[in-house]
Amino acid sequence: MSKDGKTRRSAKWFGSLDAHGFLYRSWMHNQGLPDHAFDGRPVIGICNTFSELTPCNAHLRELAGFVKRGIWEAGGVPLEFPVMSLGETLMRPTAMLYRNLASMDVEETIRSNPLDGVVLLAGCDKTTPAVVMGAASCDLPTILLSGGPMLNGKFGGKDIGSGTDLIRFVTELRTGNMSREDFLSAESAMSRSAGHCMVMGTASTMANLMEAAGLALPENGSLPAVDSRRRVLAHMTGRRIVEMVEEDRKISSVLTRAALINAIVVNAALGGSTNAVIHLLAIAGRLGVELSLEDWDRFGKNVPTLVDLKPAGRFLMEDYCYAGGLAPVIDALGDRISRDAITVSGKSLGELVSGAPNYNKDVIRELSNPVVADGGIAVLRGNLAPRGAVIKTAAASPELMTHTGRAVAFDNVDDYRRRCESEDLGLDENSVIVVKNSGPKGFPGMPEVGNVPLPRRILRKGVRDMVRISDGRMSGTAFGTVVLHVSPEAADGGPLAVVETGDVIALDVKSRSLNLLIDDATLKARLEAWTPPDFSGLSGYEKLYRSHVMSADTGADFDFLRGCRGADVPRHGH
User: Fold this and answer.
1) Whole domain around residue 161: which residue ranges?
2) pLDDT at 4 over 70
3) What is the distance between the alpha carbons of residues 235 and 68, in angstroms, rounded to a whole number?
4) Residue burial 447-467, b: 16+ Cβ < 10 Å; e: rest
5) Is 290 in contact with 284 (CB distance < 8 Å)?
6) Is there a contact between 514 and 407 (Cβ–Cβ < 8 Å)?
7) Eight-state DSSP code of residue 309
8) Which residues are CB-contacts of 322 (< 8 A; sequence separation ≥ 6)?
9) pLDDT bucket at 246, cuts 50 / 70 / 90
10) Are the C-beta atoms of 465 and 149 separated by less than 8 Å?
11) pLDDT digit string (tens) for 504-541?
């Protein structure tokens, strides 16, 4: 029984003096739980994405122990459970293929068990959106705890960042400017502690955006994984979820439209990952909150990038933490932020960040000295992307933001890898590289291949960026003038499917346009002659995925998972 006299959800399992209650309590006693664990205390699930196959999350088992301390201390009963873990670094063909599957694991595990509230433990790129999507579908009191970033990498007397500097090292190795020995030495010097990528990639972006949206306690987005304060944060997260159950503060009361728009604004200020676009749209879809690509452009436009972190800037997550983390960033954004949005702390976002000190104005810039004056995710439209495409302006080359060039088209990323070095293509630094069939259905899973590496002969000219267009994604650690998430995707018969080598493409980020410069009649004739891919021979999860995944512009979730299904107690099965 709760403090307000309401029967807890867990009491439907543990509260009855009959055969069912006996069975449920008896089996739990074999873990050493005392009788008073079933006296009406809040039962808290700890949803743990720990896995040694997910290096970013391999320390979450230890972190869960500190969450449990806080839950016991506050009078709750912690029950840890595993769910599918998505390791961006090892999973093939792409972790994104399994984001929706992992969310189903989270959702059904929560719904089918005697839980009153949930702590979500996540870290690596897709684990955060997956657990939040699953929890959003159930709408119990919920709080997120991220595993935190690694310490800065160290090589050659300098700081190096995962992903971002890897791309640089590979480029230098390919051009002969880096030795094999140095390449291998950098490899072992980059990932030198527990945690996820220490650049503002997708993992750090999502950890910060969930803090900005109010689903995590302050400092969740910045404290390094191995900092003792991350353990204290875990302890306090455990305490807080018990209080949230008493308050009946559900996830839907926190992740409102205002909160998600706050996250969009903050993403621009962070120079955050383009992947956040898809993940926030999917989360909103689970909650039934209206959010669209237009919102990304409307609220992210003209927001300055204040955080000088790789890949858009110079520093790394450790530096960001010591500079003050997210609070001074949000405070600096002033009335761009809905400061009265309520957070899981019970306080408003404005209360949490007001007057937050900035200890290093090189890392967290002032409004008068931004990294980029307009750092938002730009949403492009035109006859090549009728339902939209995105580009990360903070990571693009200014001179390429308006560009018209001859398309060199590839059927997929494998075709690009096979043929990109061919002299017959006529590919030069002014070309526009087009890679098709990298979207949710086309690959499948929408891999991080949008920023395909430039051909060696282009690199040898000293060129380090070209306009690249695809219906795929790119890593949050990546950079370049890369147009992504083109919708509809090629495999769905979008115009991208019929781009031919020799066509001319015009990109104008300022006017938010992306166009194939052919007449409407020619485009229509090509689309009518296009033959869709044959997926009839598929089976298993790939068949489910390709049959039900939606387009990138709506979050690439499954169509049957949209909307909140709640957590009504299922009937007994004994």
Assistant:
1) 152-192
2) no
3) 7
4) bbbbbbbbbeebbeeeeebbb
5) yes
6) no
7) B
8) 359, 360, 363
9) very high
10) no
11) 999 999 999 999 999 999 999 999 999 999 998 999 99
Residue 2 pLDDT level (bands cut at 50, 70, 90): low
Residue whose entry in the numeric block shows the structure tokens 């499917």: 497
Q: Decide: helix, strand or coil at residue 386.
A: strand
Arithmetic mean of pLDDT, 262-274: 97
Whether residue 346 lies inside any domain: the answer is no
Kindly indicate the confidence band of residue 376, based on its pLDDT and cuts at 50, 70 and 90: confident
The last residue of one of the domains, among 529, 546, 561, is 529
Residue type, 457: R
pTM score, two decimals? 0.96
> Are the CB atoms for 56 and 195 separated by under 8 Å?
yes
At 167 the pLDDT is 87
**C-alpha 99: how far from its chain's center?**
10
Q: What angle do CA 363, 366, 368 make, to 5 degrees?
A: 135
pLDDT, tens digit, for every residue of 389-418? Answer: 999 998 899 999 999 999 999 999 999 999
CB contact set of 426 (below 8 Å; sequence gap of 6+): 406, 408, 501
Q: What is the DSSP string of 174-205?
A: HTTSS-HHHHHHHHHHH--SSSB-SSSSHHHH
Q: Is residue 474 part of a domain?
A: yes
Which of 529, 546, 565 is where one domain is finished?
529
Residue 483 CB-half CA count within 13 A: 35
**Rg of the chain taking only CA atoms, in angstroms:** 24
Give the Cα separation of 343 and 345 in Å (integer): 5
Q: Give a yes or no: residue 437 inside a domain.
A: yes
Domain count, the chain: 2
**Confidence band for 574, pLDDT divided at 50, 70 and 90:** confident
Beta strands in 316-384 (DSSP E): 377-382
Average pLDDT in the chain:
96
**CATH code for the domain in which residue 486 is found:** 3.50.30.80
Q: Is 262 contained in some domain?
A: no
Centroid of chain to Cα 135: 15
Relative to beta strand 467-470, strand 432-435 is: parallel
